[in-house]
Amino acid sequence: MNLRSNNLALLSLINLVLFPIAASAVYGNIIEYSIPTPSSNSVDIAVDAADNLWFIEQNSSKIGKFIPSTQAYEEFDIPYKGSPASIVIDAHSLIWLTLAGDNSIVNFSPATKKFKRYPIPTSNAGPFGIAVDEGAVIWFTERNGNKVGMLNVRDETIKEYRISTDNSQPSGIAVDGTGIVWFVESAGNRLASLDLKGRKITEYDIPMQFSNPSDIAIDKDGNIWFVEVNGNKIAMFNQRLKKFNEAIIPRLATVPSNIAIDKAGRIWFTENRGNRIGVFDPIPATFVEYDIPTNRSLPLGIAIDSHGIVWFTETDRDANKIGRLDPSAIANTDEAKTPSVGAESKSNSIKIIAIIIFMLSIGFFVRYIYRKREKGQG
Q1: Max CA distance (Å), the chain
Q2: Of residues 85, 36, 89, 39, the one with CA closest to residue 64
Q3: pLDDT tens digits for range 97-155
Q4: CA 132, CA 347: separation in Å to the nearest integer?
Q5: How far apart are CA 312 and CA 45, in angstroms?
Q6: CA gap 286, 225 in Å, rounded
Q7: Per-residue confidence at 182, pLDDT binned at 50, 70, 90?
Q8: DSSP code, position 178
Q9: Of 109, 102, 107, 92, residue with least CA distance to 127
Q10: Distance of CA 85 to the CA centre of its chain
Q11: Are 278 and 288 within 8 A, CB to CB?
């Protein structure tokens, strides 16, 4: 055994101890359900009060419904021009969506099976993100119109608020507990808020340039979370401190796309190119990623039901599925007793230290035999 090669091997092991694995990967805990319409291109998804899943089929211009209790699908043809983009469900169980091809906001009543259309005043506005506040007001972003729109359901009027940054391409949108509307500007590389009391839009520069912020969600403490598609990060904005924090996703070029926050405050997200579902826990600041069984499924939309089960869409035409991930079931399996990256790293470190001790013992033994033979030959 060469002493130099032995030292290099030990150095490599020591580096693993000092710089442990940044995230754990979990396999085999996702169930997938094929969508009846082929190549439907299911994008955004939402959960209703009965824990049924509603999702958009962009290619087929349909709204889909999946009932987990019976594993049955229903599909409803949208009677207007195509390109539905985002979906949300209000307190009255009405399904709302943005319809870029028709330049409108549309709702669907599950009770009557009827659609209703609200045309947007700005032509070719490109409605994209959608949200609903506690007062049943529908908010949406206009990617082409460079505006934020407000649909008052009571009087069926639409108001629009222009964004000062030109061609900002607003995308994801959400409303916090105080009624302030938050949205991200994909091309403007900013997070922005709209305060109706002051009728003012305030913009905040995202630290990383060209980050391409996309989907957005707000936690119970009022922190604004969003994904940075180009930055490969999960970002948070603290309203009180007016400060950004960013967490780098361990694997490269995952293309984080949509996010959802569970009751424990964990941030779940889809890795569109990474073909995984990821979760970031802000308290220990750790990531866990779950591999999707279908190869290159291109996951996009994500939602969490009342039981904490994570649901997501697989947009690839050949995948064409709704996926289900139950974190509570995973936590009870031997396979996934490593959701905490810190715990996994500690376990890995102990194993590596044991290997180092073993290799050192072998090295000393070989050296002892070698010297003994030299003395014998002398």
Answers
A1: 104
A2: 36
A3: 999 999 999 999 999 999 999 999 999 999 999 999 988 899 999 999 999 999 999 99
A4: 44
A5: 7
A6: 16
A7: very high
A8: T
A9: 102
A10: 16
A11: yes
* Cα gap 128→145, rounded to integer Å: 11
DSSP state letter for 148: E
Residue 263: Cβ within 10 Å count: 10
Q: Tell me which amino acid residue 163 is.
A: I
Nearest alpha carbon to residue 85 among 32, 137, 36, 127? 127
Task: Answer whether residue 371 shows pLDDT above 80.
Answer: no
Give the three-state DSSP class for 143: coil
For residue 140, give the nearest of 107, 188, 178, 189 by alpha carbon.
107
- C-alpha span between 130 and 97 (Å, rounded): 7
Q: Distance from CA of residue 184 to its chain's centroid? A: 15
Rounded-to-integer distance, Cα 260 and Cα 225, Å: 9
More confident residue, 205 or 358: 205
**CA–CA separation, 361 vs 363, rounded Å?**
5
> pTM of the predicted model, to two decimals?
0.81
Find the angle CA(263)-CA(74)-CA(106) to the nearest 5 degrees.
Answer: 75
- Residue 252 in tokens: 């490269």
Rounded CA separation 238/244 (Å): 6
Pairing of strands 286-291, 23-26: parallel
Distance, first Cα to last Cα, the chain: 21
- DSSP classification of residue 255: -
Helix (H) or strand (E) holding 289: strand 286-291
CA distance 80 to 71: 28
Return the bridge partners of 175, or none: 181
DSSP string, 207-237: SSTT--EEEEEE-TT--EEEEETTTTEEEEE
Using only C-alpha atoms, what is the Rg of the chain?
A: 25
Domain definitions of the chain by residue range: 1-26+339-378
